[in-house]
Amino acid sequence: MGNIVVECIVQTTLCLLTSYSLGVRVSDVQLIWPNKDLTLRASGAREYEWVDPTDRRMREPLKLETIKGPPPNSSSNILAIGDGLDVLEALAAGTTVLEGGIRLVYIDPPFNTQADVHQYDDAMNRSMWLSMMRDRLMALRPLLAEDASVWVHLDDAEVHRARAVMEEIFGEKAFVASVIWQKKTSRDSRAAFSTNHDTILVFAPSGPKKWKTSRNLIAKDTAHLLNKDNDPRGPWSDAPFTAPGYRSAQQYEIVTPTGRVLRPPRGRSWYATEPTYRNLVEDDRIWFPKDGDGSPRLKLFSHQLRGLVPFTVWGTSDTGTNDDAKRHLMAMFPDQEVFGTPKPESLLERVIHIATNPGELVVDIFGGSGTTAAVAHKMRRRWVVAERNTQTVLDFLIPRIEQVISGTDPGGVTEKTSWVGGGSFDFVHVSPRFGKLTGSDRVAAIKRNFSRSLAPSGFSKVS
Ligand SMILES: C[S@@+](CC[C@H](N)C(=O)[O-])C[C@H]1O[C@@H](n2cnc3c(N)ncnc32)[C@H](O)[C@@H]1O
Questions:
Q1: Between the CA of residue 444 and those of 389, 441, 449, what are the distances in Å?
Q2: What is the predicted pLDDT for the residue at 117?
Q3: Which of 79, 107, 159, 366 to mutate to test the pocket of ligand 1 (most atoms within 8 A of CB)?
């Protein structure tokens, strides 16, 4: 028993010390795992290697090569083949791409479900998965803009551990919300529970109170607005002309068009003082229902409606399902085996809308089929997306972005964002420091296959 306690103390101390040396913000309660004091670096095209952070090889610069476009700069959109951590380091060290600061990080990493996903490894050893996440989030932290937020999309396999890791990196006070996204509507009758949600952890290093002042509200649905009095300013909604509490300046008599004399209900006041009320009447902003006999109501036109604070539970009618995302990809790539775990564009549209404004930088270092890049582009944000799997980039990401740019993708949020095409992106490659790239993962092969893919016959499978 005593040995176990000593072992725990030694491990915890080691972990605290190394956490400090890795620059992690230490709180008094921590998750520990084997090799936490090492960093997990990409090795070759698919593997990882544990490396001591002081290893001299870590000081060697990473090799960033441009495959398409001019050398990347602070106004480029970037698609990178490479491990997310290597790509961030290479862009930060050798370019101005990240200089303005990242406003939004959305990542949808492998969930570590131990299931067989066709396009990538989703069965990592747990300590590797935790270090993989910790090291990539740590690399993002100093690159964030002041009012940035970091959204990490996971399921129940690792979400509880990931939250502990994010608290270590950004601090407990940076936690904003766990968004529950309903990912499907069909039921699995063989399971103990038919899981139909994912969780998106939202952190803002500035803290939720400060971040709240710069995040966007969700647009109110204006379909319910009516024009009951043919107001030339258009349809409107209405709200009671009262406010809670007793305020003496807001206690006066209002006479309805039918001649009834009204005072505010007990314990309430009118919404505004008498002079303001008179101005509103003059401006035809007060509505008396029941043919002029009801209590006064304030007319609110669409531009005056305050948006809605986002709920933490997001349903399929607003943010789609995994199957919606697959159908969209199948329409774009009818001859291809569909990408295993795409997210719907409507989900990304909501995340990007809440967290950014046009022109700001969105980063995703687990690019997959390119949903983040496509939606950020349609919403006129700048984007940097990294994906490690060469074939995924050539089969899905590039042709998808090309369709967005040429205005030939009518699916997803194209209509909602009034997207008609335009813009560009630079395509780069970052080689890992460790291991070797072979076959179709070599830069020369990627360049060859990329230029072949630009031929009229379109993208071909890399051989
Ligand atoms: C769940 S998928 C992302 C799906 C994406 N959100 C979409 O809508 O298509 C995760 C992706 O991360 C990639 N990936 C895994 N480890 C990576 C790493 N270290 N660096 C960059 N990409 C990685 C995988 O190849 C896979 O394509």
A1: 16, 8, 9
A2: 72
A3: 366
